[in-house]
């Protein structure tokens, strides 16, 4: 691996400059005004894959944003790694909370990243992490050290639910044939405590709409005599959890498994300091389901959260009004055995059933996703573990994460391939938030670790 390490070292600056160019493309999938930019990001990746040495590179159209595919088959009898990543990013709003503009990447030092971090939307989720794979591939091709076959599947709709990926995968089963899916779109405990994510939560996301009177009303003339949809919505939402933090939807916990003693033990081994956790978020206290540790609450238990709520008058000054309508976006994180369809249906039935007279309630489901558990006794997991041990000098801990990557379950269902989540981000990297960043250390560690994974997996 000497030549490879030298190659990576010699190209460090080039890698960073190229990543910066990628980050300057505002590929926000959720907002139609960035459509052109999302296509440009796909184009950028096509060029990158081609110049790195991939074959059959193609921008594959879908009903939404395209999927970029590329591959290097050095010998069909060798194993094949399918690398997945997403080139779309979350909206950057609110812009005013960014210290520097989200699509003008800069390097700044932070307490956690004393060697500097790249600040930009997508720096960590997922452009920076996806780009590590392209650069590791480039390095392996250039030094003739690629030990097995590799395929790239890069999508532009992950942050909006990956709705077109399933049909694409089904239509391209042969082309996507592989022995393992490798994804860098998760995190580690810290740069001193490496870990491998082995579980992800699922997601059920919906919007609710409460309708009262057929028009906004003067709150003096009608206040007290008709139901106020915002008041009603708040009461309905408040009733969804009890004092112990349990979710009050009949049947919600039916398929939820309690953690085994072994699993609880694994979680207890994870270094965690509650004071530091609170300080980092400027919180006076944590909150959650009674009887569970913060790490359990945040990764192994299901949740229900309001992600947005609106209605009535929110402009400057005062307007005395009873609104006709109130809305909320609500998401539930799911744990193994809960399915998005089942939970969405349970929510819908329950929410409609608790609507008081005087209003009507509509529930509109959005996208969902299955939870996933990845094996920690597989050849691929061991290869990832050894690779990390090589570059971090410590054996990584297997941990479950609270985030969701619905395509992990989808790959298993449709292609029968298991995933390894080889993520290098940190929870403090502010993904989806203002001032998202990615440690330069983490970026280069990823590029160095990935070739070891390939090597160990091929042995
Ligand atoms: N990369 C994240 C998920 C993630 C981050 C998992 C860190 C574990 C650790 C992904 O891009 C994401 O944001 N997923 C969404 C779900 C998706 C269906 C919109 C999420 O978790 O909210
Ligand atoms: Mn992501
Ligand atoms: Mn994301």
Describe this structure in words.
The model has no long low-confidence stretch (mean pLDDT 97). The two termini are 14 Å apart. This protein is α/β, with parallel strands linked by helices and 459 residues long. The strands form six sheets. Strands 1-2-6-3-7-18 form a six-stranded mixed beta sheet, with helices on both faces. It has a four-stranded antiparallel beta sheet with strand order 12-14-10-15, covered by helices on one side. Strands 4-5-20 form a three-stranded antiparallel beta sheet. The longest helix has 19 residues. It has two domains: 287 residues, Aminopeptidase (3-Layer(aba) Sandwich), CATH 3.40.630.10; 123 residues, Alpha-Beta Plaits, CATH 3.30.70. Helix 2 runs antiparallel to helix 4 and helix 4 crosses helix 13. It is globular, with a radius of gyration of 23 Å. Helices cover 32% and strands 22% of the residues.
Structural class: alpha/beta
CATH class of the largest domain: Alpha Beta
Radius of gyration: 23 Å
Strand content: 15-25%
The H-level CATH homologous superfamily of the largest domain, spelled out, is Zn peptidases
Given the structure, what is the number of helices?
13
Query: What ligands can be seen in this structure?
Result: ligand BES, manganese (II) ion
Shape: globular
Bin the helical content. Answer: 25-40%
In the CATH scheme, what's the topology name of the largest domain? Aminopeptidase
Oligomeric composition of the shown chains: single chain
- What's the N-to-C terminus distance? 14 Å
Largest sheet properties: 6 strands, mixed
- Lateral arrangement of strands in the main beta sheet: 1-2-6-3-7-18
Domain tally: 2
| Gross CATH architecture of the largest domain | 3-Layer(aba) Sandwich
Question: Average pLDDT value?
Answer: 97
- Beta strands, count: 20
Low-pLDDT residue intervals, each spanning 5 or more residues? none
């Amino acid at each position: 691996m000497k030549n490879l390490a030298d190659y990576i070292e010699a190209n460090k600056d080039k890698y960073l400059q190229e990543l910066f160019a990628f980050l300057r493309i505002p590929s926000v999938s959720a907002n139609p005004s960035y459509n052109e930019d999302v296509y440009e990001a796909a184009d950028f990746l096509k060029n990158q894959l081609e110049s790195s040495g991939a074959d059959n590179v193609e921008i594959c159209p879908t009903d939404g944003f395209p999927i970029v595919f590329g591959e290097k088959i050095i010998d069909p009898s060798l194993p094949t790694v399918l690398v997945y990543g997403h080139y779309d990013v979350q909206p950057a709003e609110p812009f005013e909370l960014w210290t520097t503009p989200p699509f003008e990447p800069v390097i700044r030092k932070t307490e956690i990243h004393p060697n500097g971090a790249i600040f930009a939307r997508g720096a960590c989720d997922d452009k920076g992490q996806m780009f590590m794979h392209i650069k590791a591939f480039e390095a392996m091709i250039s030094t003739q050290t690629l030990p097995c076959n590799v395929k790239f599947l890069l999508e532009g709709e992950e942050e909006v639910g990956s709705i077109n990926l399933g049909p694409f995968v089904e239509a391209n089963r042969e082309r996507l044939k592989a022995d393992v899916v490798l994804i860098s779109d998760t995190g580690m405990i810290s740069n001193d405590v490496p870990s491998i994510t082995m579980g992800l939560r699922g997601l059920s996301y919906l919007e609710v709409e409460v309708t009262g009177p057929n028009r906004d009303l003067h709150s003096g003339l009608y206040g007290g005599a008709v139901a106020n949809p915002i008041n009603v919505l708040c009461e309905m939402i408040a009733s969804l959890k009890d004092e112990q933090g349990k979710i009050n939807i009949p049947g919600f916990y039916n398929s939820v498994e309690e953690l085994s003693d072994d699993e609880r033990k694994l979680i207890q081994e994870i270094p965690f300091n509650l004071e530091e956790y609170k300080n980092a978020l400027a919180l006076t206290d944590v909150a959650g389901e009674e009887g569970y540790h913060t790490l359990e609450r945040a990764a192994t238990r299901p949740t229900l959260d309001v992600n947005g709520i609106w209605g009535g008058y929110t402009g400057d000054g005062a307007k005395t009004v009873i609104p006709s309508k109130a809305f909320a976006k609500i998401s539930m994180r799911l744990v193994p055995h809960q399915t998005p369809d089942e939970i969405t249906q349970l929510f819908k039935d329950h929410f409609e059933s608790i609507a008081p007279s005087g209003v009507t309630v509509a529930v509109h489901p959005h996208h969902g996703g299955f939870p996933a558990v990845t094996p920690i006794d597989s050849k691929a997991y061991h290869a990832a573990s050894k690779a990390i041990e090589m570059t971090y000098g410590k054996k990584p801990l297997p941990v479950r994460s609270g985030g969701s990557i619905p395509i992990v379950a989808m790959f298993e269902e449709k292609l029968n391939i298991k995933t390894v989540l080889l993520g290098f981000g940190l929870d403090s990297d502010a993904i989806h938030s203002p001032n998202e960043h990615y440690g330069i250390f983490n970026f280069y560690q990823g590029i160095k670790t990935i070739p070891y994974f390939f090597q160990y997996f091929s042995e």
